[in-house]
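Protocol step 4 of 5: obtain the predicted structure for the target chain.
Materials: sequence only (see below). No template structures provided, no constraints applied. The aim of this step is simply to have a reference model before the mutagenesis design in step 5. Sequence pasted as it appears in the construct record:
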Amino acid sequence: MYTVRRVIFTMLLGIFILVGHGFPQEGEKVKILRKTSPKPQEKENVVPEAEKKKEEPQEEKRKVSLRRMSEKGDAEAETPPLEYGRHSLLIGARSALAFTSSAKENYNGFSLSPDFALRGEYVYRRHYMALFDLGYNQGRYRLIEPDIYNPRQEGIARADYIRSALLFGARYNLGELKFPRFLAEKKALSKFYAYSHLGPYFSYLLSSELEVMPQYSTAGLYDYSPYALPFVWGLQASVGFEMQIVKIMSFFEFSYVRALSKNFRDTRSLVFVTSATAEQNFMLSVGAKYQVMVR
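Step 4 output (structure tokens):
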């Protein structure tokens, strides 16, 4: 009974609603309300936070990579100064032109003599050095007879030597200068060194000859080996500058060489007469060396 009443009540309620709102006219569409989701907005070019966090490390890595490439390019463009450890070893070669004269009164001016040598150099704590030269030297000596002879003949004595030198010294990096102020600690000078060294040299005779000038009656070329001493020794003092070019050290050197023994004994012959000779010369050298060890 209760159910019948409920059905009748529901029907009457429906009729009342239809009468109150009216029926739809012909051609009129019934609007059906549906629950719809809001229209999505157009996507903007906005990177989500999660993607931003992913891109930030990648961007940082890219910047680091570009920075390293730039530093590498700078390093290639500007070679850093050579590193000298506690012990360093360099090998190289030099050539020289010597202005040779005699320490005796029988010498008649200077003459030019060639000199070539291989060089080995040991550097201790960057500043102290010991080096050994071994090479070829041709001494040329302009000799003249004593003034008791008339005319006084002139000649050129040549002597070929194997020459060695053992020198000790010190070097200083110009990039560490404290004075004068305008040059103090200039980075551009860090590849330049000034140095000096001193030590003995030894020469072993290979051959010798004497050329008497053509204006004299005894003009000609003679074997002078009987009057040339087989061993000569003396002292050498040098000052110089080094400059780094890429990974090679080039150097320019000025030396004074003084024999403490005689090159030639007294000459008494029918061709030429002169007293004993001991050499002295001023030598200009240029060369290059390469670092083969550093510890």
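Step 4 remarks: The chain has one domain: 79-294. The mean pLDDT is 79.
Proceed to step 5.
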